[in-house]
C-alpha cells in the first residue's frame, strides 16, 4: 500500500519472472477471530439452567427483565453497586422502556458493564447521558407525516413501511420509533400502534389502491413478536396483491433471542410458508435482522441462522453506527465478517438517527465516512454494507458521503433526495459532544443556531 508521499506511475504491463513474483505472507490467526463464536454454557454464571431450558424461547420470554424493579433485582450481587445506582437514575431519563432477554444479559461483561457494547444498547446510565442537540425531535424521520393511514408510511415511490405492532422482544435505547414502541415512559407518551387486524385492513386497502407500490417492509415493533398465524396471514395477503413484488420482515430477534428460531417451530414454519409462496409466485421474501456488535453473534446464532438458511430464506442485516458499540474500524470489520460467516448479508450501516435521550450513542458523520473507507476492500464487494444517513425530515436513505455540504466544525451536513422529495434539503447534525466547547455554546444560542443552519443551506445554492 502506498504512503501519502509515494506516487504510483503506470508502466507497460509485463509478466514478472517466477523468481520475482511475490506471495502473500501467512495471515495472523488473530485476523480470523470472526470464525470463533462463543460456545458452551456461557449463561451459567447468571442463569443456572440446562441447555434445553435456555434454548426454549418461552423460557427466554418469561424470564426477560422488564422495567427497573426486575432488572435491579437480577443485578444485585452481579454488577457493581455503583453501576446499579447509575442505572436506576438512567431508567427515569430514557425515552424507551427497558426490556432485556436472559440471552443478552448472559453476554454482558459484568466486570466492566460501563463499557460493554451490549449493555450500552439496552441499559441507560445517567452518568453517560449527554445533553440533546437542540435540533433533535421525537420523530426525526417524520414517519407519521408520511403515513396516509395509521401504521403505514409511504415515502418512496415503490415502497411502504407497514407497522402492524408496537412491541419487541427487547427495547433498544436508540430506537428511531421511541414515539410509539413500548409502554409510556417518564419522558414519552406513545402513539398507539397495538396489534389490531381491523387497523391493518386500512393499510392493506391503501397498498392495493396504489399500483406503484411493489415493496413492503413489515416492521413495528418487531415481527418476532407477531404470532405465527399473523406472519402467515400478513405475508399471504401482501403476496397475493398483483402489484406487490417484494416483502421483507424486519426483526432484531435473531440478535437478541435466536433460540426462537430453534424452538418456535410454528413461527419458523409460517415464515417458511410465506417464503415458499413467494417463490411459487416469483416474488421475493426475505428477513432483515439487526446485529450491531460481533458480541451478539454466538454458536446459538449460527445454529438459528442455519435453520433459516436451509429453508431458503434470504437474510440481510441492518446495523446502526453507535459510539462504544461499533464505531471503530476493527469492530465494524469483525461484525461484517462474522455476519458473512453465518450467511447473513451485511446490507446497511445507518448513521444514528437524531432521536432524544441517546446522544451518548451518536457519532459524527465523519466517523461513518472514515469507517466505510476502511471496510470497503477489506471484505468481498457484495458483503460490503452501504453506509447511509436516513435523512431527518423524511428524505430517506442517502449514502453517507453523498452530502451536498458538510461542515465538520459546526457539524451540519446537508443532503438532497431528488427521487424522494425533489427540491427539498435535509439537514443532519453531529452530536454536540463531538464539537468544540465554543461550537457547543453557539448551538445553545438560538440566534447563532439559525446562522449556522442558514450558512449550510446557502453553501448548497
UniProtKB/TrEMBL annotation:
Domain Radical SAM core: 154-378
Cofactor: pyridoxal 5'-phosphate
InterPro entries: Aldolase_TIM, Lys_aminomutase/Glu_NH3_mut, rSAM, rSAM_sf
Residue ranges with Basic and acidic residues bias: 9-22
Chain spans, region Disordered: 1-30
PROSITE patterns with a match to the protein in the record: RADICAL_SAM (PS51918)
Keyword tags: 4Fe-4S, Iron, Iron-sulfur, Metal-binding, Pyridoxal phosphate, S-adenosyl-L-methionine
GO MF assignments: 4 iron, 4 sulfur cluster binding; catalytic activity; metal ion binding
N6-(pyridoxal phosphate)lysine, modified sites: 397
Record-linked PANTHER family: L-LYSINE 2,3-AMINOMUTASE AQ_1632-RELATED, LYSINE 2,3-AMINOMUTASE-RELATED
Protein name: KamA family radical SAM protein
Organism: Microvenator marinus
Lineage: Bacteria, Deltaproteobacteria, Bradymonadales, Microvenatoraceae, Microvenator
